[in-house]
């Protein structure tokens, strides 16, 4: 069943504040990792490494993901952009 034709509004337009969001074609592979590894109060470098690790795990499992990780960090000082090539991404287990 759909509401409003082909549009399904998330939670009937209810927006709630959450500490993080996970989405995309590889997201179903990393929910457990994110739930286990996310910590409030991480510094900038810890947050960036957390995101890189999460993307690496998702990209390894999802056939529609891959290539490079493009990371944008936004803070009170502005934005920082990083491109991490596939061969520079961390590996886990027998990847």
UniProtKB/TrEMBL annotation:
InterPro entries: Ntn_hydrolases_N (IPR029055), Pept_T1A_subB (IPR000243), Proteasome_sua/b (IPR001353), Proteasome_suB-type (IPR023333). It is found in: Nucleus. GO terms for molecular function: threonine-type endopeptidase activity. This is Proteasome subunit beta type-9. Keywords: Cytoplasm, Hydrolase, Immunity, Nucleus, Protease, Proteasome, Threonine protease, Zymogen. Its EC number is 3.4.25.1. It is an enzyme of class 3 (hydrolase). Pfam families: Proteasome. One of its GO terms (cellular component) is nucleus. It catalyses: Cleavage of peptide bonds with very broad specificity. The proteasome is a multicatalytic proteinase complex which is characterized by its ability to cleave peptides with Arg, Phe, Tyr, Leu, and Glu adjacent to the leaving group at neutral or slightly basic pH. The proteasome has an ATP-dependent proteolytic activity. This subunit is involved in antigen processing to generate class I binding peptides. GO terms for biological process: immune system process; proteolysis involved in protein catabolic process. Its main location: nucleus.
């Amino acid at each position: 069943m759909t509401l409003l034709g082909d549009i399904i509004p998330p939670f009937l337009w209810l927006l709630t504040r959450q500490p993080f969001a996970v989405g995309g074609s590889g997201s179903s592979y990393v929910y457990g990792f994110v739930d286990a590894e996310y910590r409030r109060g991480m510094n900038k470098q810890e947050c960036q490494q957390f995101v890189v690790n999460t993307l690496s795990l998702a990209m390894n499992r999802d056939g529609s993901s891959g290539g490079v990780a493009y990371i944008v960090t936004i803070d009170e000082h502005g934005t920082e952009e990083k491109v991490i090539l596939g061969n520079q991404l961390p590996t886990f287990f027998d990847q």
